[in-house]
Design goal:
This protein has about 325 residues and is of the alpha/beta class. The chain contains 9 helices and 15 strands.
């Protein structure tokens, strides 16, 4: 088999492909032939040194493929089954092992690439728009990075529920992607002065919820966009971590939360249930993942640069 190996942390060029022995699935695991792997921000943090990992290290926590063989104790998964997963799995490879209880069978009609593009990003968006703050008809949502992977799917879910969406983007390409995802208005947040425009669009009322994946660059202005008793949902920090918050900034009525998918779905059963819901919407055509680019394993560095530049309007994939 071949896999991407990180022997030292640093810039994208530290990623290289090496040959390795095919791993044997342990108890409760399966060996999967990987057909597509997702590139996520956490992978960049692991590669750069922002997150500590044990070296040598193979990134990848999301993928799709075909079951090759099963380990001891696995009874409900068979070889030949098409599956997807969203769990740390060293999926930047031609083969990897995954806990059987974390696998999601892929319905017929959903391509492996679409499944990966929708799975982790879609589960995150589904959590945000279902469990954290459920938009309803008449609500107005501000979705930052609306042209990205999670942001685009979040726009679709909010619009599907009848909400009005104001999306932000940092480039013309991402603005176009946000509009195609259903945002009613798209504004540029890169100058850090977007609150006045949001308040203008809402007649001075403010929005009901801010979904923020950017962090430091948008936090203060985002709070200024909220109506009284509005909710600020901070779920990412692509622009850097938020500085310590003075609770007085909440103006006595605002709600602030920082959710994580792992905390909302702490068990395999809950995670599979959400994954099935997301893939079901993809199969119906009511949720449309966007793929920005597909790279071979040998071009993992380019895939990381595409995500790191924050220019990717959708999911970036690696294929063996």
């Amino acid at each position: 088999m071949r896999r991407v190996v990180l022997e030292r942390q640093g810039p994208p060029d530290v990623l290289r492909v090496a040959e390795a022995a095919e791993p044997e699935p342990g108890a409760g695991e399966v060996l999967v032939r990987v057909t597509a792997a997702g590139v996520n921000v956490v992978d960049l943090f692991q590669r750069s040194g922002a997150y500590r990992v044990t070296l040598p290290f193979t990134p990848g926590m999301e993928g799709a493929g075909v079951v090759v063989r099963t380990g001891p104790g696995v009874t409900d998964v068979r070889p030949g089954l098409r599956v997807a997963w969203a769990v740390p799995s060293a999926s930047y490879a031609t083969h990897c092992t995954v806990a059987a209880e974390r696998l999601v069978p892929l319905p017929d009609g959903i391509a492996d690439e679409d499944a990966v593009a929708a799975l982790l990003h879609g589960m995150t968006a589904h959590m945000l728009a279902t469990d954290v703050f459920l938009p309803v008809e008449g609500d107005t949502c501000l979705v930052h990075a609306a042209g990205g992977g999670v942001g685009g799917l979040l726009c679709q879910l909010a619009v599907r529920r009848g909400a009005r969406v104001i999306g932000t983007a940092s480039s013309p390409a991402k603005a176009k992607a946000a509009g195609e995802s259903g945002a009613d208005h798209v504004i540029d947040y890169s100058d850090g002065r977007f609150a006045d425009r949001v308040l203008e669009l809402t007649g001075g009322r403010g929005v009901d919820v801010v979904y923020d994946a950017v962090g430091r660059d948008t936090f203060e202005q985002g709070l200024a966009c909220l109506r009284p008793r509005g909710t600020f949902v901070s779920y990412g920090q692509t622009g850097g971590p938020v500085e310590p918050v003075d609770l007085g900034a909440l103006r006595g009525t605002l709600f602030l939360t920082k959710p994580s998918l792992g905390r909302y779905d702490p068990t395999p059963d809950l995670a599979r249930r959400r994954a099935a819901a997301v893939l079901g919407m993809v199969g119906e055509g009511t949720l449309r993942p966007r793929i920005h680019g597909v790279h071979p394993l040998t071009d993992a560095a380019a895939a990381h640069r595409a995500v790191e530049s924050r220019e990717a309007a959708g999911k970036v994939l690696l294929v063996p």
